[in-house]
Structures are given as structure tokens and as C-alpha cells.
Records
---
Amino acid sequence: MTDHRLTVAAAQLGPIQKAEPREVAVARMVRLMERAHHRGVELVVFPELALTTFFPRHYCEQIAEADPWFESAMPSNATAPLFEAARRYGIGFHLGYAELTTEPDETGAVRPRRFNTAILVSPAGEILLKYRKVHLPGHAEFDPRRKVQHLEKRYFEVGNLGFPVIRAPMGALPGVNMGMMICNDRRWPEAWRVLGLQSVELVMLGYNTPSINQEAGGFEAHHLRVFHSHLSIQAGCYQNACFAVATAKAGTEDGCELFGHSIIVNPQGEIIAQAGSWDDELITADCDFGMCTLGRTTIFAFEKHRRPEAYQRITSQVGAVAPPVWPA
Ligand code: CDT
């Protein structure tokens, strides 16, 4: 029987404080890759913005003041040890980071651009796939009502690469269909379905999610924050017949708590591994991609059952409209 299994890990990171240089974070990540190697892992998934503190909680009047938190080269001197570890151990990895690039915008003007980005790197150290976060939560201006800011809309542009999927060798497998999303994207079924429509088998995603909802638009109990994260990922996997490795940054960072609870989920929507600490922690699972077949050929055989003609509102409309009122 053909073996379709890949051993994957979520490499959860404990907090990275504001003053900590990225070299310290990279050294921690290399240690996690070494542990992954000892546990037979073939692909490691690191969190969103894994190299620094979650800096969108800090306000800078001039956006360029935040540039020290961004990477303008990948790899760089500071991140090269991750690529070297990948080659040394023969392990692929997924990395989230803040990307500063100079490239044309939609009008053709060449200018500095900032994205919340993730890459997938092969065991040979080549970048196989890049994704730029589409759903940016939070706000663009300083909000005096909030105890903690969430300024992703200030520091990042909306990702312009869609939701790409690549089929590439990984571990002992000749090809795995791999795609990415970042943090808030996991709450949007549209993102999962766009990946599902490209036959994704493994979704990699990193997140930084505060334990407390600072939006203060209504009460959200602490435990429900974790529940909603897991619910979204488990539903995404089930409805698109894929695995997901969802990796958190966890613990108290710059005085703000991030809830951790990294998970690996199978195509039945079951959690097959879960982090128990709010620290650097490696959780692993064997993903048998043969498990994707059941959903894909039965209840979620898209080619047989999807009705895009009835979904027109999904792409033509952004906000919700009010329904007609009865009686007409
Ligand atoms: N990083 C990220 O996208 N975090 C969001 C928190 C939203 S609160 C403004 C999340 O959806 O987990």
C-alpha cells in the first residue's frame, strides 16, 4: 500500500518582547527545528509575525517608524539560520513575517509596500510559495477607547497574491497540495473554499490572537475566544477535506496575553494534536493524505454538488443588505 503520510509540526512560540532582537527569536526557532528533526518531523509551521513581538499593538505616528519590525530581504543575515537548519535537517518550514518591499502598486507606481506575509520553504531552502494576508483586522488610526491597539490596517496593505496553492515534494512524498492563510483569514469560510477549490490537502496558518476582545462591542467570554478559533479551523478542514496546522504565538507579550492553543486538525475536523503550554512547544502529527479522499469524493465532491450560480452575492457584495420585510 502506498504511504501518503507526512509528519508535520506546529512550532508554537512563547512571547517575544518588544526589546528582543529577531536573532533571539530565530535561535529559539532553530532549537524547535532541531527538536522536530529528533522527532522525525518533515515540515514545521511557525506562527504569524514569528520574528518579532506582535507590533501592531504599538502605535507609530509615521508608518516608516515601524520599519525595524519588517524584513526587506528573505533570507537575511538574521533569518539565514532557519534556512540552514532546513537544509541540515531536511525539513521544510512555514514562516510568518512582516514584509517590506518596493514594487509597483495597482496604478503602476513603484513605492515601498508593507504586507503581513508567510512563506513556505523547501528542505533545500528554496521559497516554494508566498502568501500575503488578505483579511486585516483592527483599525488604521490610534483608538483612544482601546487599552491595546490592533493596527494591522495601519501597517499592512491587503494581500495581493490571492490564496495560492502549490503542489510540491515534501518529506518522503512526491507531491502535497499546500496552501496558506494567516490568522484572521481562518475565520472566513471564503478563504478556506478558495483553497479547497485548488484541491488543497494541507493548510498552514499562524496566528497571534489576544485572550481578550478589546473591540468591546459586546461581551465575549474568555473560553469562547479559543472555541471560535478551533471551530473555524475544524469547520474549514471538514468542509474542504484537508488537514491544517495552526500555530500560535502564546503567553504574555508586552503585557498582553495571547491564547496559544495551537492545533493540528484532520479532514474529519478532529483535533489530532494540541499545545498545552503558553511557551515554545512542538506538537506533531502524522497526516495521511489518503484521508482527504472521503470528503472529496462524497459529501464535498465540489464538481457534483456546488451551485455557484446561487452564490453570486459572495463575490458581488461586501456588507450584508437588509432582507425584504413581510408582508411585501
Ligand atoms: N492577528 C490577527 O489577525 N488576530 C485577530 C485578532 C482580531 S482582534 C482585532 C484574529 O482574528 O485572531
Note: The longest strand covers residues 92-104.
---
Amino acid sequence: MNKTVLYVAVAVIITALICSATVWYVMRPAPADVLEIYHWWTSGGEKDAIDALVDVFADDYPDTGVIQSPVAGGAGYVMKAVMKSLVLAGEAPDAFQMHAGYEGQPYFEGKYLEPISDLWQEEGWKPVIPDVVEDMVKFDGEYYAVPVNIHRVNVVWYNKHVLDDNGVDPATLTTWDAFFDACDTLVTAGIAHPIALGDIGKWTDTHVLEQIIAGEGIDFYEDWVNGQVTSATDPKLVSALNTFATYLGYVNVDHVTLTWDEAIARVITGDAAFSVMGDWANGEFYKAGKVYDTDYGTIPTPGTGVMYGLCIDCFQHPKGVKHPENSLRWLKVVGSKEGQDAFNPIKGSISARTDSDTTKYGPYQAAAIADFTAATYMYPSVAHGSGAPEAFTAELDDIMSAFVTDKDVSAAASALTAATNAASDDYIKVWDLD
Ligand code: GAL
């Protein structure tokens, strides 16, 4: 074959390919019916949990494809900013993960959400969702979101083998002094850094401080979320920061390079004894095949035994979404007993419904359900968007991250109270926690 013939043959083939691709593109079947959701559940346990919830949706609506758009970054520290820009640009997905409480306020005020009170009525959610939770998804008396879980934030996760081997009885760790004594015992036994911390994204620093603040008493916590802790010399604020500084003396030096689940992995392997984290951590132990009360255990963070710190994820019905019907169908599945009982046993949280099938939940959650029912006080997490206005929380992680490096109590107290004072107009909710 001479060169000219070869070139002509190649040109004919390429032209044919282009033509057939164009014909396929023009004639391709219309895209299947879809639902697009955003969330930040990418760690091992969390991914399994959202997949289980999506499976319930897929069973109910087999003709609708689900596009999950996960944005990695614990507590949504990356996704929250992504979502803001999408919503503002009129490109909201059909539903997205959001914390109950203050986190929805800017979307509500900007009129980016549709009220879903009719759906709440039709699905009969009010009688089966605890008042404290239901209240956190309402704005101006209307419902705007559906809770998918109730996470507890004031939890210390421990490696039971490490504590047993060193004669530490977790039941005695009810004060920070007792907790730090136990850390000293472990350090003497050769565990140089008994507390695991992974603060990529900074929010885990805030998470720990928040539980220490709760340990100062519910009245102080209530003042904090109501924007009433306004003096940098407030004795309880200073005390909480001093406790946090002591705590930091026991954490792994490479904490800035770890995510929250990598820190939990150190407790799972026994390289560390403790980690303070919300009960999404249970999903990591579960995924690693560890057995509650044999391999690992939990205690409330010191001083918070009668308290249940709340972190509640929810989904909503944004205005102008591409698939409004699927958005509402998703919310129905999220709020359903079947959906909650598929998602929460894997996630580590308890169901947001009081009529869930508790036999589906493991031993950590059985204890959590009992604690939730018996709790004297509940408090909304600030680290997880619920308790305080965004104008304050936007500053918080940076302040705590600086504190973790410099441990400067008076600088942190000044910065925290300055942030509260600057946001004073935004504290529109009066929490009554006691
Ligand atoms: C929280 C969220 C939990 C879990 C955790 C770690 O803010 O509510 O569901 O995802 O972050 O990413």
C-alpha cells in the first residue's frame, strides 16, 4: 500500500469514528432520572453508613440513580465552603449534609431553602423525633431540614487492653485531674503520648475545648452558647483553657499531620490510649472488627457524665434544585425508620427517631441510647455548627489551632471573647439548657 492510500484510509477511519461519536452523542438516551447529594462522609465507617442509606433509597426508587458527591474533610471543613458557593451560584444539589441549628441560619435568611413543614406532617415525624432535635431544624416556626442521626460529642474513646495492662480503671476518670493522673501512669509505663489527636482541618482542637467547657458546668456552657462569656478573665474560661493546655502536653507530636480517623486508628492499634471524639469514631472501631467492652470502651469526657453533647446531621430541600421530587423523596428516606436504622448502626450515632429498632444497634449504641434517655442536660455542639452563630464559629477553629501551638491562655481567652463580642448581634437564639 502506498503512502497516499494509507493516509486516505486513516482519514476515512477517523472521520467515521468522529461521525459515529457525534451521532451517538446526539441520539444518546436522555440521562436517567437522578438524585444528587453532597456530604463529607468519606472515612471507612462513614462511607459504609451513607452507602447503606443510599441503598434504602435505591430499593424504594430503583429507577433513580444517586450521585453522591462526597467532599473529604471531617466536620465539613472543606465542604461547607464549597456548598456556600454552589448555593449562592444557584447550583445547589438536591440535598446536602448540614448540621442542625445555627448552621442553617444563613441559608434560611438568604431564602435558599424551601420550608418542609408539610412533609413533616405527612410523614408523621413530630411525635417520633425528640423535641430537642426537632427544635434545631426549625426557623421561624417552620421546618427546614430532616435529621438523619444524633451523635454524642462528649466521648473519650479508650483502648481497653492498654488501660487494663496498666491498671487504669476508666470508671474513675471522672475529673480532668484523674484523667491526667492516668496519662502520667501511661507515660511512666512507656506510652509517651497517651492521647491521640489528629487536627488536620483544625476542628478537632475546637471539639476538645468544647467538651472541656461543658465540663465546667452546664450553666457556663449555656452562657458560652448564648454569647455571654465576654470577659477574657472569666475564671471558667481561663480554667478551661488551662485544662486544654495540660491536655496538649500528652498528645502525639505529629497531630497536625493526622485526620481525626487516623488519630482514632492509633487508639485502635494501642499506640495511644485515649482520644476525645464524637461517636462517629465508633464506626472506625466497628470497621476494624473491634469489640466494644473487650477491645475498646468509652467514658463521657470528664465532668460531663450527666450530659449529652449533640451533633446532628440533616438534609434539606434547597430552592430551585434540578430534581425537586427526588429531593423530597430523599428526605422521606432520611427521616424514615428504615433509613435511620440502616444508617445509624454503622455510623456510630443513635437514631433521631424514638421508635427505631434498637436490636439493630451494637453495644456502644445501646449504652448511648440509655444515656440519651437518662441525660440530665443536653447541649448543642459549637464545633459542629449547631450551638453558636457562624460569625463566631468562623473564627473559632483558627483561634484554637493557634492555641494548640502557643498554649497562650490569655491570648486565646482574649481572641475568643473578642470573637463573641464582635458577633453579638448574631446570637439570636437563647438556649435554655438547664
Ligand atoms: C461531624 C459530622 C459527623 C461526622 C464528623 C466527622 O461534623 O456531624 O457526622 O461526619 O463530622 O467528619
Note: The first strand starts at residue 34 and ends at 39.
